[in-house]
Amino acid sequence: MSSVENVELVSGTVDDIPRLEPLWVSVHHQHQSAMRELAPYVTDETTWAERSALYETLLTKPGTILWIAQIDDRAVGYGLAHVMPVSETWIADTWVTGERIGEIESLAVHPEFRGQGIGSRLLQRLIDGLNEQGVEDHVIGALPGNVDAIRLYERHGYKKAWTYLMNRPK
Question: Whose CA is closest to 44, among 30, 25, 58?
Answer without folding.
Answer: 25
